[in-house]
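Quick start: what a row looks like.
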Amino acid sequence: MIRIYNILTELFGQPKQGCFDKTVTQYQFNCPNCAEENGGVDYKYNLEISFSLGQYHCWACGISGRISKLVKIYGGKQTYDDYIRIINEIKESKYYNLDFFKENRDIFEEDFVKLPKTFQKINLSNCRDRQLVKYLNKRKIDQDIIDTYNIGVTGWDGEEYTWKNRIIIPSYDYTGDLNYFIGRTYKENDKRIKYRNCDFDKKNIILHEDKINWDCDIYLVEGAFDCIYYYNSIGMMGKTLTKDSKIYKILKERSHANIVVCLDGDTTDDEISKIYLLLDNANELKGRVRYIKLGTNDIKYKDFGEIYEAEGKSGIIRAFKNQKQYSEQEIIKIKNLNFNQYDY
C-alpha cells in the first residue's frame, strides 16, 4: 500500500499525517481542485482519501469519487497505468485475502460500465442491415453523428437477449471513461420495450459530459437521442430534476451561461416550472434559467429529434429563439400554488 501512498504524495504533496503508517487507512491531503479555484494551495488538508473505502472527498469544495478517478484526473495516463499495475499486483498477491483489502471496493472490486459484448460501432458504408439503415435515415443520424458519439449496434451472442438488435448510444465522462449507455430497438416487429438503460444510477452521471462546454449555454433535453442533435445538450433521461442529481450539482458548480429547459411536447407546465424554479432558486444560477415549450403553435414538434428530422439544425436554432423566462410575478404565483411540492 505504500506504493499507492507514494503516488498520492507525488501528486498532492505530503498529507497532514506527515508519513506513511501501515495502521492508518485515511489520509488528509491539500485539495488540488481547491487550489485551482483559489489560485494556490490553502494548506487546510480538506481532501480526505480513504484506503479502506477506496474513496476521496474534499470537505471544502465537495469533489468526491473513487481513488482511481482522482489519480487519472491529476496524474495523467502514465501515472494512472502505474496505479492500475500496482493494484493488479496486489490482487494477485498472497495478501489479498486480508480483511483490509476485502473492504477496498475501489481497488479490488471496481465496477466499471461496460458496453454489451456484441457492441460494434456502426459504419454506414458497409452496413448490410437494411432495417438499421432505414431507421437511422429516418432519424437523420448520419456518419458524422455516429462518429461523434461512437454510436453502435448490438447483435446476438446467445446470452444477452435484452440487448439484442439495439442501437447503443454510449456516454463518456470528462476524463473519457464510459459512464453510461442507452439502447433502443430499431427492427419493425420488435415487441420488446423500446428503450433500455444500463444498470447504473442515472442520477450520478451526466450524459456526454466529455462534450459539455460549461462556459456556453446548456440545453436540458429529455432523451438520449435528443442530445445528439445539438451542441451542449444534456439528456436528463426523464422529466424530473432533483437536488441530489449530479446534473443539478454540476450546473451549480460549473455552468457560467444560460440554462435552457427544453423537454418533450407532452411535458406539463407544472413539470417545466418545477425544474425551472429548482434551478433558478440556486444563487449560482439565479436569472440564467430559460425554458422552451414544444408542441405549441410556435413550435409544433414534440422534441429535438422531430425538429431535426424535419428542418435540421437550423430548425433547432429557430426553436431556441422562442425561449422564455418566468416573470417575478409568475414565479411568486407558481410558488404559492405549489408550496408543498417544491423542495427549496
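That is the whole record. The chain has eleven helices and 13 strands. The first helix runs from residue 2 to 12.
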